[in-house]
Design goal:
The chain is mainly α. It has a single domain, classed as MFS general substrate transporter like domains (Growth Hormone, Chain: A, Up-down Bundle). It is built from 15 helices and 2 strands. Strands 1-2 form a two-stranded antiparallel ribbon.
């Protein structure tokens, strides 16, 4: 039976996670990193194989991109279910069940006979990976708040950045040794390892006395209350629209660079890694920037610069000025600005609703991946070239900026928006 430790912080500015011993806190953050990586690995590992799947399953590029949309929809819908469950039952049980679904779906993908079946199984993969995403965010809010949460989310964004570097590279290596179905064997093994690590090492961070009952009606009340918070809604929309720009790049880049610029699968993996390096660098720079500026100031600056870089990308892609470099440089700049925005918007949003962290994280993740799911087919409908990708990237950044200024109004927000919780279960 899990033991519950109640901690009274000696300093009101310290959250429970900051009071943990350094070694235990490091292990917790490392495990949260593994959980955070499952979604990006599931999304990105098979990107180098998209053209091969198109040929092998006799489908169009737009139809194959819908399998990516299916994964994102699964991630969105799964979080809406798992989030409230984790608020009512604790974090561990829904998490382990979800990862189990991911493993089973990955195994079945290996044997998918056609694109329709593959797309359906990719939705199930997303549903399973959703548990890892939402519970990781909820655990962060259980133990950290305010600037501490923003710093930790920046560290976790390092994982989100590293995973896209490793995932297409691993996918490219798998394709050298096996067919595209081998990618799903690797995903199944990765999911199983993460599941075992979680079962052995993740403490329960939501004590029984803080769990929320009320069933479906209680969940509905929580969602209604969240939707009445204009700032929270604005922030999750900002996060989702930033994800639109990111997913437009993720879904369109393999076709743009492999077919449009004639890159091999390994060359594409290196280019994709370059974008992830910008994302990683920005998330880690964010930790230093937080020493001097508030999360809302950094978020505002990042989106402003991201809109400018997206505009340059669109102009250069449409005019073919600068060739490959004219696309890559502003594209990487946009990704870096997304890397600055993504930790800060969720940190501010979740700090407003610590009493229902799972549900708040679920809605945030659902909007994030739900809006992101629209980007993949939208890029495919516009075309498979650099201009189509640039249009959606730029549009996502502009819409995110408008949501920030018109809905969130960051200049009105205080530096801290919630008191830290005081209970840790282990």
């Amino acid at each position: 039976m899990a033991e519950t430790l109640t901690t009274t912080p000696p300093d009101a500015d310290l959250s429970p996670g900051e009071l943990l011993p350094a070694g235990r806190r490091f292990r917790l953050v490392l495990l949260l990193g593994f959980l955070t990586a499952l979604g990006p690995l599931t999304i990105d590992m098979y990107l180098p194989s998209l053209p091969t799947i198109t040929t092998d399953l006799h489908a169009s590029a737009a139809a194959v991109q819908l399998t990516l949309t299916g994964t994102l929809l699964g991630l969105a819908l799964g979080q809406l279910v798992v989030g409230p469950l984790s608020d009512a039952m604790g974090r561990r049980l829904p998490l382990l069940a979800g990862i189990g679904v991911h493993v089973v779906a990955s195994v079945l993908c290996v044997f998918a006979p056609n694109l329709a079946m593959l797309g359906t199984l990719r939705v199930l993969q997303g549903l399973g990976a959703a548990a890892a995403s939402v519970v990781a965010m909820a655990v962060v809010r259980d133990l950290f708040s305010g600037l501490a949460a923003a710093r930790l989310l920046s560290r976790l964004m390092l994982v989100v950045g590293v995973a896209p570097i490793l995932a297409p590279t691993i996918g490219g290596l798998v394709l050298r040794l096996a067919q595209w179905r081998g990618v799903f064997v690797v995903l199944a093994v990765a999911g199983l390892l993460i599941m075992v690590s979680t079962a052995l090492a993740l403490p329960e961070t939501l004590p029984v006395q803080r769990r929320r009952g009320g069933g479906v009606a209680g969940t509905a009340r929580d969602y209604v209350r969240l939707f009445t918070d204009r700032v929270y809604v604005g922030l999750i929309v900002v996060t989702g629209l930033a994800m639109v720009a990111l997913i437009a790049y993720v879904s369109g880049s393999s076709f743009v660079f492999q077919e449009g610029y004639g890159m091999s699968q390994q060359q594409f993996a290196l280019v994709f890694a370059g974008g992830a390096v910008g994302l990683i660098g920005a998330t880690q720079l964010n930790v230093r920037l937080l020493r001097q500026w508030t999360p809302q100031q950094i978020l505002t600056g990042a989106l402003t610069a991201g809109v400018a870089a997206g505009g340059v990308l669109l102009v250069l892609a449409a005019t073919h000025v600068g060739g490959l470099a004219g696309v890559l440089i502003p594209l990487w700049a946009v990704l870096a600005m997304v890397g600055l925005a993504m930790p800060n918007a969720p940190a501010i949003a979740l700090s407003r609703h610590g009493e229902a962290a799972g549900t708040a994280a679920a809605l945030l993740g659902a909007v994030q991946f739900g809006l992101g799911a629209l980007a993949a087919p939208l890029v495919g409908l516009i075309g498979v070239g650099a201009v189509a990708m640039a249009v959606v990237v730029f549009g996502g950044m502009v819409a995110a900026g408008l949501a920030l200024w018109l809905v969130v109004r960051p200049w009105r927000l205080p530096a801290e928006t919630a008191e830290p919780a005081v209970a840790i279960a282990h």
